[in-house]
Amino acid sequence: MIMKRMTVMYLFAFALLLAACSASNQPQANGQIEATVKRVVDGDTFELESGEKVRMIGMDTPETVKPNHPVEPYGKEASNYTKELLTGQKVTLKFDAEPYDKYKRLLAYVYMSDGTFVNEKLVRDGYARIMTIPPNVAHADLFLEAEREAREQNRGLWGLEDEKKAESKKKEDKSKKKEKDSASNTQTPPDGKLIKGNINSKGDKIYHVPGSSSYEQTNAEMWFATEEEAQAAGFRAPKR
After folding, report:
1. Quick check: bond before 27 cis, omega within 30?
2. Tens digit of pLDDT for each residue in 137-167?
3. Which residue intervals are annotated with compositional bias (Basic and acidic residues) in the record (predicted)?
């Protein structure tokens, strides 16, 4: 009888232990669980082997898979970066005040086995911007400092601003050159001299009379009153 009671007590204690272990690996506010990453959806979202989706807290990478939304600049780079970091890796998911979002995705701070804080790394390396949504704000200051550093160093997506400025300046310079060339082709001829003399890239001296096919776009280096005057200066008529 005593042995039977002891057996029942052991079984009961074992059941309680199993329940406690099971509960310890369930998402809870300010708790944590161990998990393995099955695949990365995009820069800030991935799927576990259990099938649950995880959205990293406190940061936001450019969109790549949002329905009816174009792929945003640096989105593919961020997605590929997260894939290299996390695919197939065992990670620790730490939760803030809310373990889930409205889409039933886990909201987590993600740590790799070597201690790397993935959320922070994505921000500091310039693959993500900070996105602080209360009440999940445990590392808001850390993320702000990481983004400030990424901006100052022009890392990742922050370097795109310099590229845009350079491209804008290039277009501006091109526009100014076009305006300058256009202005040079509307030169005011000296009184009585309408024939344009021009020396091409091959060194050929060619004159163009008003009404000819190349007259308007030709930049006059010399002006002549007559074709004879142009020819006397060593210029010839166009071959066509």
Report:
1. no
2. 999 999 999 999 999 999 999 998 665 655 5
3. 161-182
Select from 156, 155, 139, 146 the least CA-distant residue to 62.
156
Consecutive H or E run containing 176: helix 159-184
Q: CB of 45 within 8 A of CB of 54?
A: yes
**pLDDT, tens digit, 9 for 90 and up, residues 27-81:** 999 999 999 999 999 999 999 999 999 999 999 999 887 777 777 888 899 999 9
Catalytic residue ranges: 55, 63, 105
Q: How many helices (H) and strands (E) are present in the chain, helices listed first?
A: 6, 10
Place of tokens 């007590």: 9
CA dihedral (222, 225, 227, 230) positive or negative: negative
45: left (phi over 0), alpha (psi -120 to 50) or beta: beta
- Residue 176's pLDDT is 57
- Other beta carbons less than 10 A from residue 109's beta carbon: 20
